[in-house]
Every structure is written in structure tokens, then in C-alpha cells.
TrEMBL record:
Catalysed reactions, semicolon-separated: ATP + protein L-histidine = ADP + protein N-phospho-L-histidine
UniProt key word tRNA-binding: no
Protein name: histidine kinase
Species of origin: Pedobacter xixiisoli
GO MF annotation, one: protein histidine kinase activity
Residue ranges constituting the CHASE domain according to the UniProt record: 111-200
Database matches in NCBIfam families: sensory_box
Taxonomic lineage of the native organism: Bacteria, Pseudomonadati, Bacteroidota, Sphingobacteriia, Sphingobacteriales
Keywords: Kinase, Membrane, Phosphoprotein, Transferase, Transmembrane, Transmembrane helix
Length: 787
């Protein structure tokens, strides 16, 4: 390494002008501190913007879930409307919805824009009967907008006629492509803000604001109390098309007042003043140093020797480079080892051949400034590439070996390997980002799976224990755990969907059932994303929401609808029966009464009176049977309890013992002693007695009666079959009338046609059903399915 030569004092302009030099140095330091302060200002601003974005994303997720839930509620309420536009079980369904959603003010059905159906009525009386299209121009515009959009649209926040502020989500409904009205939900404004996380009291210097453009005045209205103008502050906004809302999040702190900037500027000024003072003293003494150069010449040789020793054995990479050609002149052992070259190989290379291609432009810019004497030294973190093409992160310091004013000749490169630190920092940043994503996740089971590792679960939130009962370890400990816990009826459907649809688009939303740890069935709505893209998928991320209550409400609504239809059919059938039977008896009585009044002798009159008594007895029997049917179909308080099926079968057989002995019948019973069915005691006795007595009554005259009674598991219940080898029933001919009233098919004198009708009504009154299989001359099998 060459040393500086002795120069006359007069040739050094800076030494001769110490005050001017100090002033220039002061200006440069102030400029550097200003630049650093500006950069720090930008960093603080960017960090605050990131925090605001994260908070807004959380609010967006919460509010989006609330709006989707409101739409599901509106759809559920809409399902109560039949094809004729009449609500069925509105109050019952609405009560369940309100119970599960305490944030709601109420739910509405608004046929033709008039609020006719409201739940709860208490507290909402003022809203009932309002006509949305006549109430005000504002309401008319908002209602028509929902119709125009043909989807859920939220009006408000507005002052509700029943008191308080809220938003009203209206879903336009159509029957046969004709507008019927709206299914609507009313959400309290304070509840909406709370669920969305728009509560300023929870933050010391962040402020939310919630606004909407008034369609009449085209002015922006704000609904959260407090200031909504923060000039010069950092803020971000989010818009929601479902209600034309805009959410502001503002950081009320002034960046210029940040203590870090103040401290940085104060420290910088202090260092500048102190450095300038020291420089002035240094320059004043510099003159004296030139006089000592000759005396130090011998000492310089000693120092040069020490330098070479330090250069060769230093624990960091040091190299001397030709500033014109860029080739290494010499390199120490550490630098050779770092790059994997021998000293001979390295000294034949240019330094830019070792710099990573992405960092060449920055290095060229900095070195150009160094050669132009704009700077005397620079350092930066950059990447190098060693002999094995491995990337090395390093902190590089470049210092010139030419004096100011001289032409560039050589410079020193000091390289410190910081690859382990960079890797650690990258891992730390990734971990922090990962944790932030989890913390900001919405309610539900947040999960992640690796596509490359055969969809192995890499993460699941603790919410999995609350919803499904499994621990995080259980969920992630084995591959395929998710598919194993799918409900068996949904497994094939979900597997087929994943095979065919997963990589066709980035975002998915799917519903299925899972088996919880306690054995219960949970409905899940899974919203997942393919990351980072469908072109290069690496992992899946999603949120599993528990929608069991919504599904149960839909199922209850469906069952209620079917029950109403079935009751209507029974009522219509019963009216036909009553009309036919009573009219027939009335006609007989009327005819016999006319004959009695026209009888010419007492003998004829007595015969007509006997006939009239017989008709009256038949009428009384008919009324008795009709009354039994009415009791079965209208009883709402029948007690269902677990009954031992075998005990009741044995009791029915004992009751028919005389008939069994008379016909020499064989009864085969294959029913377990541990079989219990939920049924009414009296009804079970009646059903078994009717079916066993029919099997005996309609036995075949040419063979011994054999009756088999078999019970087998079916799903979560049982199926009971009573099979005989009797005369059989012509089902193609009589199947539709088999369980009808007053229907007989074999001409037995003691047949009344009430037994099977009553049996079917009793079975269906318990929520079960009865089936029949039969062939003429071979026998009949009645099957009762106990749920």
C-alpha cells in the first residue's frame, strides 16, 4: 500500500483556510442530517400507513362478515314466503334469528314496499304499516336502488321511526320474476360499529369515521361523533358498495412532532457543532503536523509493516483495487476464503464480476460519486457471488487511497460477511408478518396447508378447539386429518370439488359438514385462497366459519313448510271423508224417515224404525272413528318416550293368542331385547295390534299362517318389518287407496276400513312413516321406519 508523500504547507488550500473549510464541513453535515431526518420521516409515515392498512383490513373483514350474515338472515326470512307470497312461520323463524343475532333491531317482510311483518313487534310498532315508496323521497330512492341492483342493499345510517339510529338491509324478492317486496334486517348503528371494531374509545391516537353520500344533497355525512378533518395527518379509507359507505382511519399524531425526529435532529445538530469545532481545532494543528512529517518517516515504515501484518491476518475481508480498471491488486486471506478463490485467481478478477447483478447499479452510482470526489467514503449492504455461485450478504466499506484533488488511482474495499444476520432478519420479518396475519384474522378457524407437502396442515388457530373440539396438535399432527373428519355424506363431494375446482381460481367458498370430537355434526363455510397464485400454488389459507345455527334454521323452516303442506292435505282429505260419510248417512235417514211417514201399516213402520236404528248405529260408529282420527291428527301434547319394542310386540301377540291358536299360526320374532324406540305407548300398542291382527285375519286358506317380525338398525334409528304369507294385496290396483278411510279389499264381513288409516296416522303423528310391499297370493310386508 503506498503512503502519502511529503507536501509543502502552501500547497494545501484547506489547511490554509480552516474557518472556510469548517463552514463547508458544517454545511455538508447539516445536509446529511437533513437527508437522514427526511428518510426517518418517510419511514415513520410508511410504518403508520402499514398499521392503518392492517387495522382497516381487520375492520373490512369484520364488516364484510356482518353484511354476509345479514344477507343470509334475509334469505332465511325470505324462505318463509310460499309460492302465493304468503309468509309461513315468520314469527317462529324470526324469533330464532333474533335469538342468535342480538345485534339486530328486527327483521321485516315488506310486500309491495309496505312493512307488514315485523319481529319483534314490541319496540317496533311505529314501523309497521309504513310505505317505503311514500314515506319520503330519501326512502324511496334507497328502496328503488336495492330493486335496481337486484341484491342486498343497506340504507342508512338513518333515524329509525321506532327510535335510535340504524341501518336497514333490504333484499328484493321476486315470485315468478315479478317483484314481491323486500326481506329486510334492521341493525342498530352502535352494534354495527362495535362489531366492525369502529370504536374510537379503544385507541389513544387512532380515529375512525363512518360516512355516506346523501343521495339528495350529494354531500358526505359522517356518523361517528368527533372531528372528521385531520389536515396533514396520515389516513386511509375503505369503501363498501353494499351500503355506499366509506370508512376513514386517521392517525391524529403529527409526524413532525414525533420524539424520534426531534431527538435525531437535536443529536445531529449537536454532533455537527461538536464536529465542526473539533475540525477547526484539527485544521489549526494540521499545519504543525506537516512540520513533523519528516520526523515520522521512519515511524511510517514501522506502521506500514504493521499494516501488512494486519492486512494479511485480519478477520474481515480486505482488498486493494485499481480504481481505473476495477481489478484486485491484492487481497487478504479472509477475502480469498470468502469468495472461494486463490489470491492469484482473485487478483485477476474485476470486483464488479463478484457483485450480484441486482446491486451493480447502486454500486456504480456510489463509486462514481467517490471518483468525482463528491464523497470520500461510502458503505452499503450488498450481495456478492462466490466461486460456487452462492450469494453472500456483506457490509462493504470503500475508501479512496488518493488525496483530494488527485486523480483516482486505488481504493480499499473492506467486506464483512453478514449473511447469517440477514437470514435471521428475514426469518424474523417473516415470523412477525405471520403472527400479525393471525392476530388480525376474523372470528373462525384460521388455517394453512402446504400444497407441496401433500396438503399437510402447517397451521390452525386455537378456535378449532372451540368449534370442533380438536386441539391444534391433533389437527396438524397427521396428513389427511381434515378429510378423515369430514361427515361421510359430504366426503366424496368435497374430495371431488378439491380435485376438479381447487386450482381453477384463486378464491373459493364452500360448505360442508364435519364430525366434531364429541361426535356432533357441525356445518362449516370454508373461505380459502390459493397462495401466492394459481399459476404457482404453494399453500392454501382459509377461514372456517361455524354456520350450524343457520343450517338448522333453514332445516327447521323446510320441515315446517312440509308439515304445513301435509296437514293441509290431511285436512282436505278429512273434509272429503266427512262430507261423503255424513252425507250418505243423512240421505239414508232422510229416505227412511219418508218411508216411515208413508207407511200404511204398523208392521211396515216397525221395520222402517229398525232399519233407521241400524243406520243411526252406523252413523254413531262413523262419528266415533272420525273423532279418533281428529284426535290423532290434532294432538300436539302426545308423550313420546323410549319404549322396549320387544315388550310391546309380545303384549300384542298375547292379545291375539286366541286367533293364533284358532288358525294354528306360527309367529317368528327376531327383535333384540335392547331395541328402544321413541313412540307413544298407546299408539305403539294400537299399531302393533292392528298389523298383527290383519296378518291373522287375511291369512291364506290353503296354508299355515306364518308371521315374521324382524327389526334391524337403519341410520340412527330402526326399521320394523311385519311379514305374512297371507292372501296379499293388489298394490297396482289398490295401492293408492290402501291407507284410506273406509277402504276394504277382501270382502270380509267384519272389515270396516279404519284400521290401516288409523295406523298410518298414528305412525306419522310420531314423525315416522310406514311402507308396504305385497303380491297377490304370496303375502304382505308392512315396514315401519322409526327415526
Amino acid at each position: 500500500m503506498p503512503t502519502s508523500s511529503k507536501q509543502p504547507i502552501q500547497s494545501n488550500w484547506f489547511t490554509l483556510n480552516p474557518k472556510l473549510t469548517t463552514f463547508l464541513f458544517f454545511i455538508i453535515l447539516v445536509a446529511v442530517i437533513s437527508l437522514i431526518t427526511q428518510q426517518r420521516y418517510q419511514i415513520i409515515k410508511e410504518n403508520r400507513e402499514k398499521d392503518i392498512n392492517a387495522m382497516l383490513e381487520s375492520v373490512e373483514l369484520r364488516l364484510d362478515q356482518l353484511l354476509k350474515n345479514s344477507q343470509n338472515i334475509a334469505l332465511t326470512v325470505a324462505l318463509t314466503i310460499d309460492q302465493q307470497g304468503k309468509p309461513r312461520n315468520f314469527e317462529k323463524v324470526a324469533a330464532e334469528i333474533m335469538k342468535a343475532n342480538p345485534s339486530l333491531q328486527g327483521v321485516q317482510l315488506v310486500p309491495d314496499g309496505i312493512i307488514k311483518y315485523m319481529y319483534p313487534v314490541k319496540g317496533n310498532e311505529e314501523a309497521i304499516g309504513l310505505d317505503l315508496f311514500k314515506l319520503s323521497v330519501f326512502n324511496e330512492l334507497e328502496a328503488k336502488k336495492a330493486i335496481r341492483l337486484r341484491k342486498m342493499y343497506f340504507q342508512g345510517p338513518v333515524e329509525l321511526v321506532q327510535g335510535g339510529k340504524g341501518v336497514i338491509g333490504r333484499l328484493p324478492l321476486y315470485i315468478d320474476n315479478k317483484f314481491w317486496g323486500f326481506s329486510a334486517v334492521v341493525i342498530k348503528l352502535d352494534q354495527l360499529l362495535k362489531i366492525a371494531g369502529l370504536e374510537n374509545d379503544n385507541f389513544s391516537y387512532y380515529r375512525f369515521q363512518f360516512s355516506k353520500i346523501n343521495p339528495l344533497t350529494n354531500e358526505e355525512e359522517f356518523f361517528i361523533p368527533g372531528e372528521h378533518k385531520y389536515a396533514g395527518n396520515t389516513y386511509k379509507t375503505k369503501t363498501f358498495e353494499e351500503g355506499d359507505w366509506k370508512i376513514y382511519l386517521t392517525d391524529t399524531r403529527k409526524i413532525v412532532a414525533d420524539y424520534q425526529l426531534g431527538g435525531l435532529m437535536g443529536f445531529g445538530l449537536l454532533v455537527t457543532v461538536l464536529s465542526s469545532y473539533l475540525l477547526l481545532r484539527l485544521l489549526n494543528k494540521h499545519r504543525q503536523l506537516f512540520l513533523m512529517v519528516d520526523q515520522q518517516s521512519d515511524m511510517l515504515h514501522v506502521v506500514d509493516s504493521k499494516y501488512k501484518t494486519i492486512f494479511a491476518n485480519a478477520a474481515i475481508g480486505i482488498g486493494r483495487v485499481n480504481s481505473i480498471t476495477g481489478e484486485f491488486i491484492e487481497a487478504n486471506a479472509f477475502l480469498c476464503k470468502l469468495f472461494g478463490y486463490s489470491e492469484k485467481e482473485l487478483t485477476s478478477k474485476k470486483i464488479k464480476s463478484l457483485i450480484h447483478v441486482d446491486d451493480l447499479a447502486v454500486d456504480a452510482y456510489d463509486f462514481k460519486r467517490l471518483r468525482n470526489n463528491e464523497i470520500r467514503q461510502f458503505s452499503s449492504v450488498r450481495r456478492y457471488v462466490n466461486k460456487n455461485q452462492q450469494v453472500i450478504w456483506a457490509n462493504a466499506i470503500i475508501s479512496p487511497l488518493w488525496e483530494e484533488g488527485e486523480k483516482p488511482s486505488q481504493h480499499i474495499v473492506i467486506i464483512e460477511d453478514i449473511t447469517p444476520q440477514v437470514i435471521y432478519e428475514e426469518q424474523l420479518i417473516a415470523s412477525k408478518k405471520y403472527a400479525e396475519e393471525l392476530i388480525n384474522s376474523m372470528e373462525g378457524i384460521v388455517w394453512e396447508a402446504s400444497i407441496k407437502d401433500n396438503f399437510a396442515n402447517t397451521f390452525v388457530s386455537s378456535k378449532v378447539y372451540d368449534i370442533l373440539g380438536y386441539t391444534q396438535y391433533e389437527w396438524s399432527s397427521e396428513i389427511g386429518f381434515f378429510l378423515e373428519k369430514l361427515y361421510y355424506e359430504d366426503k366424496e363431494r368435497v374430495t371431488e370439488y378439491l380435485d376438479k375446482e381447487l386450482f381453477l381460481r384463486k378464491h373459493h367458498e364452500y360448505e360442508y359438514r364435519m364430525v366434531a370430537k364429541d361426535g356432533s355434526i357441525i356445518w362449516i363455510r370454508d373461505t380459502l385462497t390459493v397462495e401466492p397464485s394459481i399459476e404457482a400454488p404453494e399453500k392454501l389459507r382459509g377461514i372456517m366459519m361455524n354456520i350450524t345455527m343457520i343450517k338448522e334454521a333453514e332445516e327447521t323452516l323446510h320441515k315446517s313448510y312440509e308439515l304445513v303442506n301435509e296437514q293441509n292435505k290431511r285436512l282436505l282429505n278429512f273434509s272429503y271423508i266427512v262430507s261423503h260419510n255424513l252425507r250418505s248417512h243423512a240421505s239414508n235417514i232422510d229416505g227412511i224417515s219418508s218411508l216411515i211417514s208413508n207407511a200404511e201399516t204398523d208392521t211396515e213402520r216397525n221395520e222402517m224404525i229398525k232399519l233407521l236404528r241400524k243406520v243411526v248405529v252406523n252413523l254413531n260408529d262413523t262419528l266415533y272413528n272420525l273423532n279418533n282420527i281428529v284426535n290423532i291428527q290434532t294432538s300436539m301434547d302426545l308423550v313420546k318416550e323410549p319404549l322396549n319394542l320387544l315388550d310391546y310386540i309380545n303384549h300384542a301377540i298375547q292379545t291375539q293368542e286366541s286367533q293364533i291358536l284358532n288358525k294354528n299360526a306360527e309367529i317368528i320374532v327376531n327383535v333384540g331385547e335392547d331395541v328402544f324406540v321413541y313412540f307413544n305407548k298407546a299408539y305403539l300398542d294400537s299399531v302393533l295390534l292392528n298389523l298383527i291382527s290383519n296378518a291373522l285375519r287375511y291369512s291364506h286358506a290353503l296354508r299355515k299362517p306364518v308371521i315374521e317380525i324382524i327389526c334391524e338398525p337403519l341410520g340412527g334409528g330402526y326399521i320394523l318389518r311385519i311379514k305374512d304369507n297371507g292372501v296379499g294385496i293388489d298394490l297396482p290396483k289398490n295401492g293408492e287407496r290402501l291407507f284410506g278411510l273406509n277402504q276394504t279389499f277382501h270382502g270380509n264381513s267384519d272389515a270396516r276400513g279404519f284400521g290401516l288409516f288409523i295406523t298410518k296416522n298414528q305412525v306419522e303423528a310420531m314423525g315416522d312413516h310406514i311402507e308396504v310391499e305385497s303380491k297377490i297370493g304370496e303375502g304382505t310386508t308392512f315396514s315401519i321406519v322409526f327415526s
